[in-house]
Amino acid sequence: MKVHGYRRADGRLGAHNNVLVLPSVVCADLVAERIGATDAVAVVHQHGCGQVGDDVECTERSLLGFATNPNVGAVVVVSLGCETIQGVRLAKRLRECGQTVDFAGIQALGGSANAEAYGLAAVARLRQQLDRLERTEAEASDLRFGVRPARGFHHIAERLVEEMVDSGASVVVAGPWPGAAELAYGERADGRLAALPDPGHGAEQDVALAAAGAQVIVSFVGRGHAPTGFATCPVIAVGLDPDIFAALEDDFDMDGSGDVWSRLIAVFNGEPSASERRGARDFMLRRTARTM
Amino acid sequence: VIAQLMGYRRPEGRWGVRNHVLVLPLRSAANLAATRIAEAFAGVVAVSHEWEGEPDDPDRLRIEGSIAGFATNPNVAAALLIGVSAEDRVLADRIAAAGQRVEFLAMSQYRGTIGTIAAGVPVARALVAESGRMTREPMPFAGLQLGLECGGSDAMSGVTANPALGIASDLLVAAGGTSILAETPELIGAEHILAARAANEQVARRVIEVITGFETAIRELGVDVRGAQPTPGNQDGGLTTIEEKSLGAAMKGGHAAVSGVLEFAQRPQRTGLHIMDTPGHDIEQMVAMVAGGCNIVAFTTGRGSPTGSAVVPVIKIASNSSTFNRMPGDIDLNAGAVLDRELTLEAMGRLIYDVVVEVANGRQTSSERRGSHEFAISRTVFPMQPAMTALVGTHPR
Asked: Is B135's Cβ below 8 Å from some Cβ in A?
């Protein structure tokens, strides 16, 4: 197996080379969506204002971690200006992490239309910059995979995690895991095996896996759940419940009998996963307190 | 001259001022399919949201109630509901039972997203054709339900835009219409003023209960609410405390009697001014008011907000000329004219009222022109909530 990825300034490897358009608050969603319509990946979310306590820090940490995932080569932060999670501060903290950042403030730039024009130009500039980077050959130790186990099918996730670690890759697991270093939601992993004891539920787990540094996510989907995609990491959806797999087959990469490992390598190298083929860019953030 | 309203007659005596076909995902896994179906037609709108449909979610009733209410807003001529599995039909049936024209597709019938988009496009096309045959007819003022909102407030909000909107609200209530004042945390400190205007003892008690209840919930969290209420932008705009913000925010309700207190996303049973229990978060609040039947929203802003709704026209009113002039295309009216001595507060209030009527009759607002479709799920219960510690000094101020 050979993997090729985008080498970042800090030495980490990206499976993708995205320009991310990140709204700091729901009020900036539409502008972010328009800025990211071509040449970039925009996420939209409903958070960033009226938040209190640890919930503020959790959201900020998650956005920071997510936007410094090695699949993201550059970020355009879109801010309204009056929000709780201040976009200016988010952009500053991203720069301090070594990320390439531009900032479009809607109130500061004089409204949505001006912010869109500014953001589109920023994306074009950053895209051009990132396009100079080419995939280079990498080692197994450059890989960090995210794994979402499914209730009732833990043994399948166990086998995969073991295989990953044996091959020399690093792993982050959503949920408690014996022998793993424990991470808070939104925190970056540095060891070979890390776990999120409190990862949120459903697609919220993907944000934490991405923030931990996973380049590709393997999502085991059991009963009562649907396969999801993710904004900046390919998701390989493995259907473990035969009924759900049959009903939503096109949104899955494989059922439980498939070869996850070779699919992972192919997807890392650029082959689109099922979620990427359909264009799913889910982004769901775990919250810890009610909105004010 | 008494203006004539022209709207779309809906079942159960309700009236729409728009005639949208809405494609609504019942669970977030259907977001992509809903968005793609709506993109196929200019007249079709869609929203996306973060509700995954966890069956044991303690907020399930609240969330499903707001999704169902949103789909049955009278501005929605027909709703194409996208579920993931056949079980989602339960919610679809509930929306249909509320009198809405509904079509339902489950992704499980089409092997996933791509097949659902292909199946949904012709269904949406048929709904567009069907809704296109509906026409506006004379509509009573009792059919108009105005949501009162403020976002990104500053020190002028309580001096210009909010009291002017209060005058417009009073005019609407006098004409037989309904207004909804919400944003419970932004009423903390003004509860006595609102309770004194309650239509009866019971309403007065509910006003106090709901507002002090929110205050108690904040205290129980043990957090410093500053940074969330008032926000950094509120503070830059000269607002110093939540009570000060509240006294300005409550002025959006004018001087009319408070005829009822509504739960989150609850539809009023009579006309007149109501208070709805919602967070201050602009989009959670807007979704609650839309789900509660508001067919038009007036939204005052000091710092400048570009947000809106997929199904309801939102009239944006600046509290000062500087913000109005700085954000062309985002704001509809300038209550800064009161400070600039171009209009009296009374005249500004009448202007807002006239524009509410014009917009109800079809005039587009800036957020409609931009195609706003922000949406938010409002939660109250956080099962894994960690112990919260005081936050003074750690916030980015």
From this structure: no
